[in-house]
Amino acid sequence: MRSLKNSKTWLFLYQEKKSSSLNDKDIILVSTPKSGTTWLKAIIFSLVNRSTFPDTKQNHPLLTTNPHVLVPFLELNLFLPSKSKLVIPNLISSSIPSNNYDSNPSLFSTHLPYVSLPESIKTSPCKLVYLCRNPKDVFISLWHFTNRLRPQNLAKNTMEESFEKFCNGVSLYGPFWDHSLGYWEVSLECPEKVLFLNYDKIKKEPFLHVKKLAEFLGFPFSLEEEANGDVARILELCSFDNLSNLVVNKSGRLSSGEENKTFFRRGEVGDWINYMTPEMAERLDSLVEKKLHGSGLEF
Ligand code: A3P
């Protein structure tokens, strides 16, 4: 497998494997929507597969494939036979042995809150990487995203109406604070099972967090790799500027219909300031502070 040079062939085999099973060594990225899932999918994919694809400038799957294709959503891509029926089976016990063409783990993702995860995932040795982001940027990113996806003939969601819903906990995968808190608590109880990451912190210290992530996943960087600039190369490959300017992400579409470009907007920390009034920011800050009080989790 490692000798495969053609990224399309590799991608095909990779997808075949993914659809057949979930193994104990597989990795699941969990995130609250609009917290940078696309970015972390790209980073995790590059980390885990770096010996297969050491060259980040040529023939790397991320150069021609959107991260959501490489790391599919369990609830959207793999276990949703029709758009009207959501099926989340007991993944581990119903799994079929994988074809073992490659020793690398398969990668999956989900937005499900911890309480809704199948028991099979909770009790399996699968590692979970959780990603969150400061709630004000999550809200602004979500507001833009939902409006970009809205059919042209429908009126846009207003900021005020969307904000009211967000503050009332009306979100697709449950209230923002419950989502983060659920995984935060498990990450404290079982740090070997759940790594809790924050978009804002990765942005601030990318090397530190990417190295920590690689170690958690069981793919630590050797001193030689570090000296070689391998961490920097992965960060560059997965950077907002690089990914958002690739043809596939400028003009492609996911099989579910969304344009790839909708997953790339500004990719910055603190963009909320350009949209929210000081009153809105204060309301959301104090709400989240109250909800997280005593947990040790802060944004
Ligand atoms: P903004 O709307 O604030 O720009 P998700 O991937 O969970 O849907 O989150 C989307 C957010 O992540 C968007 O935030 C998007 O621009 C940002 N993003 C996408 N790719 C990124 C990257 N490579 N680096 C940093 N941020 C990225």
From TrEMBL:
**Enzyme Commission no:** 2.8.2.-
Pfam families of this UniProt entry? Answer: Sulfotransfer_1
Q: Which residues form the Sulfotransferase domain?
A: 24-296
SUPFAM superfamilies attached here? P-loop containing nucleoside triphosphate hydrolases
An example of a GO molecular function for this protein is: sulfotransferase activity
Q: Which InterPro entries match?
A: P-loop_NTPase (IPR027417), Sulfotransferase_dom (IPR000863)
Q: Tell me where on the tree of life, at the top rank, the source sits.
A: Eukaryota
Which key words are in the record? Transferase
Top-level EC class:
transferase
Q: Which family does it belong to?
A: Belongs to the sulfotransferase 1 family.
Its name, as the record gives it, is Sulfotransferase
Upper lineage is: Eukaryota, Viridiplantae, Streptophyta, Embryophyta, Tracheophyta
